[in-house]
Design a protein that fits this description.
The structure holds two protein chains of two kinds.
Chain A lengths: L6 H11 L2 H8 L9 H10 L17 H13 L6 H10 L4 H33 L1 E2 L2 E2 L4 H25 L6 H26 L1 H4 L5 H13 L4 H14 L4 H9 L1
Antiparallel strand pairs in A: 1-2
Helix pairs in contact in A: 1-3, 1-4, 4-6, 5-6, 6-7, 6-8, 6-10, 7-8, 8-10, 8-11
Chain B lengths: L1 H8 L4 H4 L8 H9 L18 H14 L4 H17 L2 H12 L5 E4 L15 E4 L3 E12 L6 E7 L11 E7 L5 E6 L8 E12 L3 E2 L5 H13 L9 H14 L4 H29 L5 H27 L8 H13 L10 H11 L4
Parallel strand pairs in B: 1-4
Antiparallel strand pairs in B: 2-3, 3-7, 4-5, 5-8, 6-7
Classes of the chains: A mainly alpha, B alpha+beta.
Amino acid sequence: MVNNEFLEPFEQMLGEVFPPAAVRAIEAGASDTGGGEAAMQAVEESGFLDALVAEDAGGAGLAIADVAPLWMALGRHAVPAPVGQTMIERAAGDSDTDKRANANALLRAALIAGAAGRLLDMAVAYANERVQFGKPIGKQQALQQNLAVMAQDVVAVRLAVELAASKGWPDMAQAATAKSVAAEAAPRIANTAHAVFGAIGISAEHDLGLYTRAIHRWRLEGGAETLWSRQLGAAVLASTQPSVDWVRETLF
Amino acid sequence: MRGLAEESVADMSLAQRSRSWSGFDAEFSRKLGQAGLLGLTLPTEYGGGGRGPFARFVVVEELLAAGAPVAAHWIADRQSAPLILNFGTEAQRQKYIPAICRGELLFCIGMSEPGSGSDLASVRTRAERTDEGWRLNGQKIWTTNSVHSDYMIALVRTSGTSDDRHRGLSQIIVDLKAPGVDIRPITDLAGDAHFSEVFFDNVELAEDALIGEEGGGWQQVVAELAFERSGPERIYSSIVLFDAWLAHLRGAGRSDPATTALVGGFMAKLAALRAMSLACTGQLAAGESPVVEASVVKDLGTAFEQALPLAIGDDLAAYPDEPVSEELQAALTFVTHIAPSFSLRGGTREILRGIIARGLGLR
């Protein structure tokens, strides 16, 4: 998953197709830009929408573990178009709704992981740049502690996603693990980013809102932490195994 | 492995098993040594298992999940032996490591002093050169298991003053049976006495008491702390209680949405933390020293350990008509009271976040 040959061209394509202005226009449902349709057409031409489709069916035949980094890249660019959803739809086959729901939950968790990483990068860079009281605000211990917590959340979400993506199409427990961890951490991550940026981050012209709006949307889509934790908890309580045995056998 | 762990806890109460890696049983540690389950990361030529950090992870996880009494060998196996392997002379390796792997030589760590907690570089305990070796004077405190240990690896000043900070610090292996060493146990708020004050009054030590380079103590300690902070013991301190609560819920047939979501949320966090600890283990296996990553594991892991007793207490209190066993109640009380120590021992939460902030480029 670390050396993913598809990641670089994919990110480059996203940078071209989904610059902040395009994200804003799509979010606003601007009909004068053709909404997200033109952008989706550009993604279609890149071939990435068939990433999960089997090779003998004309796709790239990638595994979920290979695609998860691409999903995180979508989050890093706050992509508002259904790129990941379309990948899932094209590969999920006929009518397996659980398979779709689980994959979509993992997708949202991966999107959150990507946006969270971008928010951390932005917040750290700004904290080193913004001067108050005669020094960069990042030199203040209060901010350092908050940003350290944010970094921990970002790492936890990413590793939960990588874990859940490591064994092919996710089952309920894998999807729930990723979505529960990501959804629970998402508001903390967004709030810390906003706290660092202050008022400018609230303004419509600033890009911060692209990522924090997206993170809240992805948290709720298809169920947030309570729904997925409840499903996971029901499976745990239905088994007789102690916690470490259960986690090892079910998720690793 | 599992058989040994289960056998070791067969006669222990739930509250005793909840002591996790504070539980002391020298005989059990020797049994693990005989079974080849200590020193797994160490080379076979020194009596180790020659297996690496992942094998150790498997064994440690199994022991912690059972609530086995691992304190006797814990520190020697985790960090003293790797430290001696990395920085010691061949003679020091031969002297200590094989006996550690047999579970016969018990170590403790001398870092904190009455005036040096988080500000570790301010230590004042001093070792002066003599014709025969070193003369040690000063005091350590909060030294876990020193009363049972054979040796302490102490961070001491060998030159300069406290103003020199990281310069002039060295690590010294102190024979705790040497004349002039006085150990006084300190009782904690739960009634246990796992840590102590240790006084050094003109303790004469041989030349080979110095471990590693004179003046290189700080760098050695930083590398050592990556071992200390990234392991499963920073996730599993409340795991015996967690499992007892799960057993209680299953027995009571409880399936209310709030509790079920609570269980699932904790399990998801446990999975993410285990993945993170394994990632650090991978870095250790690759010969790296994941200082920042270990701080992330420890801070998030101890937050998980501390959240568990509070949430479990609240959950049980929400069902006052549901009988709770005395055992579970005692374990819950113990873990609730001792949990604040989880984010003190081995580096406080605030210090760890400072290390992470430095890793982010903020300091």
